[in-house]
Design goal:
Blueprint (H helix, E strand, L loop, with lengths): L1 E4 L11 E5 L7 H17 L3 E7 L2 H6 L10 H10 L4 E6 L2 H4 L3 H12 L2 E6 L13 H11 L2 E4 L4 E2 L2 E2 L2 H9 L3 H8 L5 E4 L6 H4 L5 E4 L9 E8 L5 E9 L10 E6 L10 E11 L7 H21 L42
Parallel strand pairs: 1-4, 2-3, 2-5, 3-4, 5-6
Antiparallel strand pairs: 7-8, 9-14, 10-13, 11-12, 11-14, 12-13
Organism: Bisbaumannia pacifica
Keywords: ATP-binding, FAD, Flavoprotein, FMN, Kinase, Multifunctional enzyme, Nucleotide-binding, Nucleotidyltransferase, Transferase
Pathway: Cofactor biosynthesis; FAD biosynthesis; FAD from FMN: step 1/1; Cofactor biosynthesis; FMN biosynthesis; FMN from riboflavin (ATP route): step 1/1
Length: 350
């Protein structure tokens, strides 16, 4: 799979493809159905599958901290798109130059001159171009003029409900990791490389592996029972805090993980963390002793959860995933000072 960053990196060899355009945040089962649809058409035409995405995502460009939280970083999104059958991913920087293109200019420069698209698959509610003036009808007209086909995406429904990134964000925020997994087609995970930090956890008997997060709205905030996969393949239980650490202060959000019954050096290792159950919101405490007492309660609740939910060892897809927060405290609002995302009723195409 090839990642192409920007129109200027397109070459003649990239022309001629079946393509789609969108955010593809989370690369959930609905997105995978679109990739299946693209692959069917690509096989008939003997062409590669190209997915066009934007960085930042358009709503992040316009709304900043009020944009919906991301489900996947660009790196993970590209990997997941490759797994789903994309041959190429064209990542366009969403900036003033791109947003200033009219709908016709976007089609001509990106789809025709850039990709030489032969067939396009998009949602029939897809809007694009300056002031969102372009729509599915315009694509059909330009396709007829320029010689490429246009087809709308098939809606993917699960249990009578449309699968969307918006719905998955809601499920994660409510602690329903079981249903989020069904919609994603895999457990929701966070990953990153362990970096040195304040090492405060060691001073209170709770050493943590700290993974910095991008300073964007977070899909998760609070304290969770987690399973963490190490670089050597071991998967260990533990407890994690995701957020801004209001008691000790933090300039940027962080994922800090305490692994149960583990003693070792994790600095520099890439970890994959699977939240299994929400324990509580992120709270501000009156000093380290109060924080230490709460952490002990969090650890006990997480240990009890894992003890009561047997799993197949070393098999991440059979991890216990809660369908609701474990206790009333889990519904307590966060009191950290990190930015919050405004509600969003549409995750964009697709």
């Amino acid at each position: 799979m090839e990642l192409i960053r920007g129109l200027h990196n397109l070459r003649e060899a990239h022309r001629g493809c079946v393509a789609t355009i969108g955010n593809f945040d989370g690369v959930h089962r609905g997105h995978r159905a679109i990739l299946d649809q693209l692959r069917e058409r690509a096989r008939r035409l003997g062409l590669p599958v190209t997915v066009v995405v934007f960085e930042p995502q358009p709503r992040e460009f316009f709304a900043g901290d009020q944009a919906p939280p991301r489900l996947t970083r660009l790196r993970d999104k590209v990997d997941l798109l490759a797994e789903a059958g994309a041959d190429r991913v064209l990542c366009l920087p969403f900036n003033d130059a791109l947003r200033g293109l009219t709908a016709r200019q976007f089609v001509e420069r990106v789809l025709i001159e850039g990709l030489g698209v032969r067939h396009l698959v998009v949602g029939d509610d897809f809007r694009f171009g300056c002031d969102r003036s372009g729509d599915f009808a315009l694509l059909q007209r330009m396709g007829a003029e320029k010689g490429f086909g246009v087809e709308h995406t098939r809606t993917f429904v699960l249990d009578g409900e449309r699968v969307s990134s918006t719905r998955i964000r809601t499920l994660l925020a409510s602690g329903n990791f079981a249903q989020a997994r069904r919609m994603l087609g895999r457990p929701f995970r966070l990953s990153g490389r362990v970096v040195p930090d304040q090492k405060l956890g060691r001073t209170i008997g709770v050493p943590t592996a700290n993974l910095p997060l991008l300073p964007r709205p977070l899909a998760l905030r609070g304290v969770y029972a987690v399973m963490t996969t190490l670089a050597d393949g071991r998967t260990l239980p533990g407890v994690a805090n995701v957020g801004w650490r209001p008691t000790v202060g933090s300039r940027r959000p962080v994922l800090e993980v305490h692994l149960f019954d583990f003693d070792g050096d994790l600095y520099g290792q890439r970890l994959t963390v699977t939240p299994c159950a929400r324990l509580r919101g992120e709270l501000s405490f009156d000093g380290l002793e109060a924080l230490k007492r709460q952490i002990a309660r969090d650890q006990q609740r997480a240990r009890t959860f894992f003890a009561e939910c047997p799993r197949a060892p070393e098999t991440s897809d059979t991890l216990p995933l809660a369908s609701a927060p474990l206790a009333r405290e889990a519904a307590i609002p966060d009191t950290s000072d990190g930015p919050r995302a405004a509600g969003c009723d549409d995750d964009g195409h697709p």
